[in-house]
From TrEMBL:
Keywords annotated in UniProt: Membrane, Signal, Transmembrane, Transmembrane helix
HTH araC/xylS-type domain sequence ranges: 431-543
Protein's name according to its UniProt entry: HTH araC/xylS-type domain-containing protein
Species lineage: Bacteria, Pseudomonadati, Bacteroidota, Flavobacteriia, Flavobacteriales
Membrane-spanning residues: 372-392
One Gene Ontology term of the molecular function aspect: DNA-binding transcription factor activity
Organism: Flavobacterium gillisiae
Signal peptide start-end: 1-19
């Protein structure tokens, strides 16, 4: 290594660390260069980053000396892309300070957009959205088409993150046509984003087409930076197409490249879908290490996305089956933290993007078509009125049903001494047989045998010491119900009495209540509860609790 190269390295390292506090002295070889020279010689290529950092520092020193705020802002932007990530936000703020002194809307907007890109890369989505929205305010006042579409792309990314995929697709399509002629890398990025969005709305064929287009266009444009991302996208897409082995193969292939670039977002996504693919193949032990990577990313950098949340549910389910209470509790606690982050993040982002971005675009359109929006507003008001009326009706209906349920006494079935003569004559069964079956039926109810799981007509018939035909006839005539409803109603009535009289059951989950009453699944229990009472178990318990504290 020559003395000249050593000097350049030393200067860059020194001034990168102290650029904010000391005056940089431009080397003699660069002292006579103009702004155009610095701008054209910074190519943002990693192999020349040290050299380019020296150019950027010299550019900044020249702009400071000449008090040229426009060039000062541009030189800070160059420093952002030639410096360590820890300094990027500092330089972005310095860029904005300089840009604001120029009163150039395009430059100020560019500063906010640059800051938003950095924040998005740091997973600071709320801050990134704020920067995008401010950038949009400034850039919308200019005729700078590149910046207009760059902001539009940033907003589309936030919409994708929020799950507004159709809206994101519309914006990405607008960007695609512009970037195709203007910016190779932005064009490839947009193809990639479109593919991801198509995947999210279930258009897997279109997603594959976008990925194939991206791979071929990258080769055609001699830009292979995005190749691994298109393979990554197709790997995820293959998971949704149930080609699990292919998904694992593609995602595993790109992991080294993602690790090398420290792309936590796509690396974590790859782990998630590799894990889910193994899970779908019934290879849970192989899936576990990959699913746990989601929690590692969250614990280290608080990175999480709504779709990645499922990893926690799978891990909780697995450790429940293994009866590993310690790990089950760990992932339950972690999931609670994840939900808090997602709720906070999404509530803020969703509100912001609709209030400050979508509303703005809505008003612009409204100026061109007042009559159309009047109809829209009236329609919305009408729909809201109907919704409010439905909710009010449901509220009063639920309140009435709750009061009726609280006043309802447990059903008492007719005793053997009741007037059953007319019924006996209808059944064409020996009266003595009927009497024996009814005694066994009362015993069945008294001993709560109906709480056993998977209680079927065959099991009941055995307990009643008869055959299934006689058992179903007796239940239909003497309990006025079909066998399924008869058992289901007994189970639900049992749970209702427990909830009414014992506070501890009000803390049970629907799953636990379903198990307590012998239902095969949570869904079957909640459906049976609703069919029997007209209410959901959650609503019934919440009303019981409110009465308890009132």
């Amino acid at each position: 290594m020559t003395k000249k190269h050593l000097l350049i390295i030393w200067l860059c390292l020194y001034y990168n660390a102290y650029a904010q506090r000391t005056n940089f002295v431009i080397p003699d070889s660069l002292s006579t260069k103009d702004y155009e020279y610095f701008s054209s010689n910074i190519l943002y290529e990693e192999k020349d980053s040290i050299k380019e950092m020296l150019y950027a520092q010299s550019w900044l020193a020249k702009a400071k000396r000449e008090k040229n705020y426009g060039q000062k802002a541009q030189s800070y932007k160059a420093l952002i892309y030639t410096s360590d990530k820890k300094l990027q936000l500092i330089y972005a703020d310095s860029m904005l300070i300089a840009a604001k002194k120029t009163a150039d809307f395009a430059l100020i907007g560019s500063g906010y957009m640059t800051k938003g890109v950095i924040q998005y890369d740091r997973k600071e989505h709320m801050k990134a959205l704020d920067s995008y929205l401010i950038a949009d305010e400034y850039i919308s006042k200019t005729h700078n088409q590149y910046q207009i579409y760059k902001v539009k792309y940033g907003i589309a990314q936030i919409k994708y993150y929020l799950g507004f995929y159709d809206e994101a697709i519309a914006l990405f399509k607008e960007c695609l046509g512009y970037f195709k002629e203007d910016n190779k890398r932005a064009y490839l990025n947009t193809i990639h984003s479109l593919g991801l969005s198509y995947n999210r709305i279930g258009k897997y064929k279109l997603c594959s087409q976008m990925n194939q287009l991206g791979l071929s266009q990258g080769k055609h444009l001699k830009n292979l930076e995005m190749q691994s991302y298109f393979i990554h996208s197709e790997g995820v897409n293959q998971y949704f197409k149930h080609n699990y082995s292919d998904a694992i193969k593609k995602l595993t292939k790109v992991l080294p490249a993602l690790k090398e670039t420290k792309d936590l977002t796509n690396e974590t996504t790859a782990y998630f879908y590799i894990g889910k693919s193994y899970w779908a193949l019934k290879l849970q032990e192989k899936a576990l290490p990959y699913l746990k990577k989601i929690d590692e990313a969250f614990q280290k950098q608080k990175y999480i996305r709504p779709d990645l949340r499922e990893a926690y549910e799978l891990l909780i389910h697995y450790y429940q089956e293994q009866n590993d209470k310690e790990l089950e509790l760990y992932y339950v606690t972690a999931l609670s933290e994840v939900d808090q982050v997602l709720i906070k993040d999404f509530k803020y982002l969703s509100g912001k993007i609709h209030k400050e971005y979508d509303t703005k675009k809505l008003l612009q359109t409204q100026r061109n078509n007042e009559q159309y929006w009047t109809i829209v507003v009236c329609t919305i008001i009408s729909i809201m009125t109907v919704i409010i009326a439905v909710l009010a009706h449901r509220h009063y209906k639920n309140k009435r049903l709750f009061e009726e349920l609280m006043n309802r006494k447990p059903e008492t079935n007719q005793s053997l001494a009741s007037n059953n003569t007319s019924k006996e004559t209808e059944l064409d069964i020996n009266p003595e047989v009927i009497t024996a079956i009814l005694r066994n039926l009362e015993k069945f109810e008294r001993n709560k045998k109906y709480l056993e799981k998977d209680m079927t007509l065959a099991k009941m018939a055995a307990l009643l010491n008869t055959n299934m035909k006689y058992a179903s006839k007796i239940i239909a005539r003497y309990r006025n119900k079909g066998t399924v409803d008869y058992i289901s109603h007994l189970k639900i009535d049992h749970i209702i009495e427990l909830l009414k009289n014992e506070n501890k059951y009000r803390n049970y989950t629907n799953k636990a209540l379903g198990e307590e009453s012998g239902f095969g699944s949570t869904q079957i229990f909640t459906r049976a509860f609703n069919n029997r009472t007209g209410l959901s178990p959650t609503y019934f318990i919440s009303k019981l609790r409110s009465q308890q504290h009132s």
